[in-house]
């Protein structure tokens, strides 16, 4: 079960198209006025927010046929690839916190970002919707490996709820482990990671969550990905209380954060989390295939 060069070429074409259309062509929609500013949905007007959803849906639709016959499996990577370009061009959370030294202002920063992940998740799911619509119009042949198709082990709604809760736990644990620079060891205070480190940590975290969800529950990567918005929203409620931020502002520089999650932008969480979730899902399928056909 190795990827052929044709399949790898399809992946490159789909991701390249997403980077060009969303990452470069539509960049001015979300570009902050300050070159060091953050990329967030509030940078765009309502018209551009809606237009981005339409573009994401069309991109998923086109990439389904571009990656034929694996359009649904590969085409879903186009929109996250474009958002990943935006996420990589954004300033860091710390660069903004340094300009707002008081606890009240810092709390306002995270409050403003709290619901952002839901919009970026909606953009990713618009791409999924476009690919789904294309599949309805022209169904692709079934994959040649039966391990890619499995009946969920828990009936709805218990399976999806269990998948989201498990993903919240796994991603938070792995992000705390990997999504930070040098830790302040005396008080175990997290610090702002560079973008490459954040991207690595996010992909590892969501790959782990999606692997476990697929392996133990036989559910799609969409449920771990959906947990990204809840993870950021709950994280900002729990870790950005005024008392906590006030203590940090008094004792530590702006690079120090009460939790590693706060050093990650919502668009980074969703964009790189999408790659990780898809990767973890197919690693679980690959493991099942290996165990059934190649092991012993």
Features:
296 residues; mainly alpha; two-stranded antiparallel sheet; 13 helices; globular
Describe the structure.
This protein has 296 residues and is an all-alpha fold. 68% of the residues lie in helices and 1% in strands. The protein contains 13 helices and two strands. Strands 1-2 form a two-stranded antiparallel sheet. Helix 1 runs antiparallel to helix 3 and helix 3 packs parallel to helix 8. The longest helix is centred in the C-terminal third of the chain and has 29 residues. The two termini are 16 Å apart.
What's the arrangement of secondary structure elements?
Layout: H1 5-25, H2 27-30, H3 46-66, H4 71-75, H5 78-89, H6 93-97, H7 103-113, H8 116-137, H9 158-178, E1 190-191, H10 195-217, H11 222-239, H12 242-251, E2 256-257, H13 266-294
Antiparallel strand pairs: 1-2
Strand content of the residues, in percent? under 5%
Total DSSP E strands: 2
CA-based gyration radius:
20 Å
What spatial order of strands do you see in the largest sheet?
A: 1-2
The major pleated sheet works out as: 2 strands, antiparallel
Q: How would the global form be characterised?
A: globular
Which regions are unreliable across 5 or more consecutive residues at pLDDT < 50? none
Cα separation of the termini: 16 Å
Q: Tell me which oligomeric state these chains represent.
A: single chain
Based on helices, strands and strand pairing, what is the structural class? mainly alpha
């Amino acid at each position: 079960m190795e990827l052929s060069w044709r399949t790898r070429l399809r992946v490159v074409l789909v991701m390249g198209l997403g980077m060009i259309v969303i990452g470069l062509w539509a960049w001015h929609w979300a570009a902050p006025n300050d070159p060091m500013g953050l990329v967030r949905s509030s940078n765009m007007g309502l018209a551009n927010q809606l237009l981005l959803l339409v573009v994401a849906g069309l991109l998923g639709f086109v990439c389904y046929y571009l990656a034929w016959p694996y359009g649904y499996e590969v085409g879903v990577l186009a929109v996250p690839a474009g958002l990943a370009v935006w996420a990589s061009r954004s300033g860091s959370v710390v660069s903004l916190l340094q300009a707002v030294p008081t606890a009240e202002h810092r709390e306002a920063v995270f409050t403003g970002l709290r619901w952002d992940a839901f919009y970026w998740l909606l953009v990713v799911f618009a791409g999924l919707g476009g690919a789904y619509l294309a599949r309805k119009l022209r169904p692709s042949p079934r994959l040649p490996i039966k391990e890619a198709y499995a009946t969920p082990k828990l009936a709805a709604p218990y399976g999806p709820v269990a998948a989201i809760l498990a993903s919240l736990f796994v991603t938070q644990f792995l992000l705390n482990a990997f999504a930070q620079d040098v830790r302040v060891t005396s008080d175990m205070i997290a610090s702002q990671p560079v973008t490459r480190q954040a991207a690595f940590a996010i992909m590892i975290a969501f790959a782990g969550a999606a692997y476990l969800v697929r392996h133990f529950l036989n559910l799609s990567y969409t449920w771990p990905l959906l947990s990204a918005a809840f993870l950021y929203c709950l994280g900002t409620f729990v870790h950005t209380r005024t008392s906590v931020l006030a203590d940090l502002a008094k004792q530590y520089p702006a690079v120090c954060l009460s939790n590693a999650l706060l050093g990650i932008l919502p668009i980074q969480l969703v964009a790189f989390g999408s790659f990780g979730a898809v990767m973890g899902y197919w690693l679980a399928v690959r493991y099942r295939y290996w165990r059934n056909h190649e092991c012993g």
